[in-house]
Structures are given as C-alpha cells and as structure tokens.
Amino acid sequence: MKDLGIYLYASATVPLAQGHFEISVYRTADESSEAVVISQGVLVNARGMFVRIHSECFTGEALASQKCDCRFQLEEALKHIALQQQGMVIYLRQEGRGIGLGDKIRAYHLQNKGLDTIEANNALGLGNDLRSFALAAKILLHLHIDEIQLNSNNAEKRAALEEEGIVVRGMIPSHAPLNEFNQRYLETKYRKMGHLLGALFS
User: Fold this and answer.
1) What are the extents of the domains in the chain?
2) In angstroms, how far is the first alpha carbon of the chain from the final one?
3) Catalytic site includes residue 47
4) Beta-carbon contacts of residue 181 (< 8 Å; ≥ 6 apart)
5) Among 97, 103, 106, 129, the one annotated catalytic
6) pLDDT in tens, 91-135
7) Tens of pLDDT along 149-191?
8) Beta-carbon contacts of residue 108 (< 8 Å; ≥ 6 apart)
9) Catalytic, out of 52, 97, 106, 131
10) Domain 6-94+131-193, CATH
11) For this structure, is 131 an active site residue?
12) Is residue 145 helix, strand or coil?
C-alpha cells in the first residue's frame, strides 16, 4: 500500500456509557492533524462495516446545546455499534462544518437575529461546508477498509469518500428529534444542503 501519510499514535480501551470501546488516535505524519477512531470489533480488512464520520461539535457534545443534532447522532451511532459489537466512528476535529468554534459562535449570533445557518456563514464570508474527509478515508485505507456502510444523511460526504477510493455500499440515515431550537437548522440542511432528512418533515 502507498504511504498514506498517517500513523497510529495511541490506542486504549475506554468504558463509555454505551459500552467498552477502543479509542485510537491517528496523526498525520507532519503532526498537523489528528483524528480519533471509536470502535468495537475487528476492523482490519472488514468490508461493509457500519462507519460514522463525525465532526467535532463542542456546543452540542460538551454543552448539550439543543441547536443541532450532533450529540444525538454521535450517541445513536455508538449505541448501534455496541448493539452490533462491530463498527466505528471516525471523529474529526473540524468544528462548525470546518469554520472553527469562534466563527461558529459568530454565526450563532447572526442566527439569533433571524438568519439560517447558511445565510449566517455567508454573511461572515464563509462557505457552507469547509470540511475535508480525506483524513477519514486515509484511516479507512490504513485499516485495509475500502467498502463501508456510511451512517450519514449527507450525500456530499459520500461523494467525498468515494473520490478518495472508498466504496459506499449504502447510507444508513441518522435522524434526530426536533425541538424548537433545532428545527430551522435541520430544515435548512434538508432543503438547502440536500441532506436525507425528509422523514422528519413529512
């Protein structure tokens, strides 16, 4: 296999609310980035495995913000993996769809004034989604995994992985309960970003 420019830095079993998981930290060779794999079961050479590629959300995961669906999606993915005793979450450090925490809070301020998430990002001169999934694809290829079942509502995430050589055999949707604070955000993802969230609004 060609040099992917990443390496496994650390790994340990950690008890989580959903069960015992292996937590593995991968770093790029130049030490500029790192990502975390949260997994159960044998990963190497696994084909068609449940995989969620999840981007960090400080407000949702650490503060339990009700403005987004991130914490719920992460917890549901871990529950699914624990039930199947096989699968992984690749956790990427790219807050706010890649704009960073500071600009995410600036965007929240604009959302409080009436803009939706895309309008707020654009008002700040930022794109709708600045994330890259190349590191996640490299981790999968490092584990000799080139075919997965992707837990996501985001067709662009699927396309990005396929461009990196990962075959996505199917999309497993990840739905979140609506509340008064996240409804417009979820509707925006569905109506403006093409996410597979139609069942929430039927």
Assistant:
1) 6-94+131-193, 101-127
2) 46
3) no
4) 65, 66, 67
5) 129
6) 999 998 889 999 999 999 998 998 888 888 899 999 888 899 999
7) 999 988 889 999 999 999 999 999 887 777 776 666 666 656 6
8) 59, 67, 120
9) 131
10) 3.40.50.10990
11) yes
12) coil
